[in-house]
Specification:
Number of helices: 12
Strand order of the largest sheet: 5-2-1-6-7
């Protein structure tokens, strides 16, 4: 299986490098400066346990050919259009595997490539690119979930899942992959909403008198929105998410908070705004999500 990974950021860089380590045929599509850096010094992955450097195959957009069986997309949601443009010379062939936050990107990809070519994927990792260009994993979480959205995708999903099983991260196969996407979305919207409103970690929030209640209520709002669209978050998934979201002393924050504090562009429109749009269409009350979204909208105006 020939795999093209678009970019070498927190998701693409980390998981692409881990798959490269176990012999997968990985090529990274990079921009000029990033390509030059990785070609000369390699792609370094820093984890809480160890560091390693790979020297993978790299390519620029104008060098692409339609030779890849799988194209992995993992940009920030606001960079999706640019990523799709960058793969134009390769995207007439192969399956598309997106690892983006939210859910609405699937409609965009389905329209461009057809639903038969668009798989489902969920990545759980906190990672960032350091000043030296390394990909740094910020905590122990490193999970990849894949699954087919229709029967003709089963074979390629299973082949990719078998590759993932060899690599140094937790991998899961889900037949109900769209539900898995919603499970992540409700988790991430709660994490992002709470930590950006409070400008603090989960541990900081739950240490206050009403912090835990705030997080639980925001999570409930998110689950109600998912349920209104037919995606019922199971009791098991709710319990697991809330254990993480209300853990005392946890340093966990959302990347949206890190982007906010750094003055970077963020995904509030895609993680919070699009979720609220579904709520409005289905008459679901979500006051806490609206506060979180409004806060981020104001902050983003000030930064622009």
């Amino acid at each position: 299986m020939k795999i093209l990974v678009v970019g070498a950021g927190g998701i693409g860089g980390f998981y692409g490098a881990q798959l490269h380590q176990v012999g997968a045929d990985i090529t990274f599509l990079l921009r000029g400066k990033r390509k030059q850096l990785i070609d000369e010094k390699g792609l370094t992955i820093e984890t809480p346990k160890n560091h390693f450097t790979i020297f993978p195959k790299t390519v620029l957009a104008d060098q692409l050919e339609p030779i890849y069986d799988l194209i992995i997309l993992a940009p920030k949601a606001f960079d999706l259009a640019d990523s799709l443009n960058s793969i134009s010379k390769a995207s007439s062939h192969g399956m598309i595997l997106p690892f983006l936050n939210g859910f609405t990107h699937l409609a965009v990809l389905d329209q461009q490539f057809g639903q038969n070519r668009v798989l489902g994927g969920v990545a759980h990792i906190a990672a960032t690119i350091t000043e030296s260009g390394s990909v740094k994993q910020l905590n122990e979480m490193k999970t990849l979930t894949v699954g087919p959205r229709n029967p003709n995708q089963v074979a390629v999903c299973q082949d990719f899942f078998q590759l993932c099983n060899k690599a140094d991260f937790d991998s899961f196969y889900r037949d109900d992959i769209e539900l898995a996407l919603w499970e992540k979305w409700v988790f991430l919207a709660t994490l992002a909403g709470a930590t950006t409103i409070c400008r603090g970690s989960i541990g900081d929030i739950v240490a206050t008198t009403y912090g835990k209640d705030l997080i639980q209520q925001m999570f409930h709002e998110c689950c109600e929105i998912a349920s209104s669209l037919g995606y019922i978050i199971s009791d098991q998934a709710r319990i697991k998410s809330l254990e993480i979201l209300t853990k005392a002393g946890s340093p966990f924050t959302a990347s949206m908070l890190r982007d906010l504090l750094a003055g970077n562009k963020n995904e509030h429109e895609h993680i919070l705004g699009e979720l609220i749009n579904f709520a409005v269409k289905n008459s679901i009350e979500c006051p806490l999500l609206k506060i979180a979204y409004t806060h981020m909208a104001v902050e983003s105006r000030h930064q622009s």
